[in-house]
Specification:
Layout (H helix, E strand, L loop, with lengths): L23 E8 L2 E9 L5 E7 L2 E8 L9 H24 L1
Antiparallel strand pairs: 1-2, 2-3, 3-4
Length: 98
Amino acid sequence: MADDRPFYAPDRLPPVPRQSRRGELLFEFLAGHHRIRCELLDYGDLGIEVQFWRNEEFEWSRRFDPRLDSTRTPRDLAIAWAHEERTAIESARRDQEG
């Protein structure tokens, strides 16, 4: 056999660079000196992901699966949660200032 290394050897295949995938802009605002950006990524049957970015750096995300709520779409759930997060960020910023 030409290659006796196991298939999981770290140097067997070169790493594939990750491609950044930008989503649909939901909103963008300033919190102090930070620019906060919220994007939605649609994964079809797998649901919707909400991503928060601070000054062009990824901060956190949450995915909303279609099985979470049978009365609302994942998009509706994602948008509602994103607005709650925005309210919390803005409220925390006001508390810091005052």
